[in-house]
Amino acid sequence: MLAELVRDTVTLGERIRKARLHAGLSTWDLARVVGLTDKAVGAWERGGGVPSKHFPVIAVACGVTEEYIATGKLPMVRPEATDEEAVTLFGLIQELSPEDREVLRDMANRLKSK
């Protein structure tokens, strides 16, 4: 159970399919956004190679994190932009100097790696 909270152990193709279905997209819809054919998307989902340059577009189109697509790291779904606490924190961060933002980034990375 704990492993499921950290990483989705399915293959890259299965993650793309899961993300596409989460977004309610057909293979044709996703292919159109990525700029390829639905046959290419279908091949990816069946285990064909997916160039990593497509990960950001796939993630945005499906409303999931790029990290989920690339590695399976959960959560799959991006946090909502309407999350009031996140919006407040983002506003506070924007007011910081570049040097203070770097300090905050370092702190966040240390906390994340605990």
Structure summarized in a few sentences:
The mean pLDDT is 82. It contains eight helices and no strands. The protein is an all-alpha fold and 114 residues long.
Describe the structure.
By secondary structure, the chain is mainly α. The protein folds into two domains: 2-71, lambda repressor-like DNA-binding domains (434 Repressor (Amino-terminal Domain)), CATH 1.10.260; 80-114. It has eight helices and no strands. The chain has helices at 2-6, 12-22, 27-34, 38-45, 55-62, 66-71, 84-94, 98-112. α3 packs across α4. It is elongated, with a radius of gyration of 17 Å.
Task: Considering the chains and any ligands shown, give keywords for the structure.
single chain; about 110 residues; mainly alpha; 434 Repressor (Amino-terminal Domain); 2 domains; 8 helices; about 65% helix; elongated
Question: What average pLDDT do the residues reach?
Answer: 82
The arrangement of helices and strands along the chain is HHHHHHHH
Question: Helix fraction?
Answer: 55-70%
N→C terminal distance: 20 Å
